[in-house]
Amino acid sequence: MKGQEVKLKNAHCRLDKVEKDLEKQSKMRRDFAVGLAEAMTTIWS
């Protein structure tokens, strides 16, 4: 049973890491989109 627990724990840690990476990526995308929108507004105004 011990081996199962370790595997579960490792899988859980990996999931946490993936979630954090996704959050970071979506934040970067959002920042990029906002920057792009600001640049467009500056160009057109």
UniProtKB/TrEMBL annotation:
Species: Setaria italica
Coiled coil: 1-28
Keywords noted in UniProt: Coiled coil
Domain of life: Eukaryota
Name of this protein: Uncharacterized protein
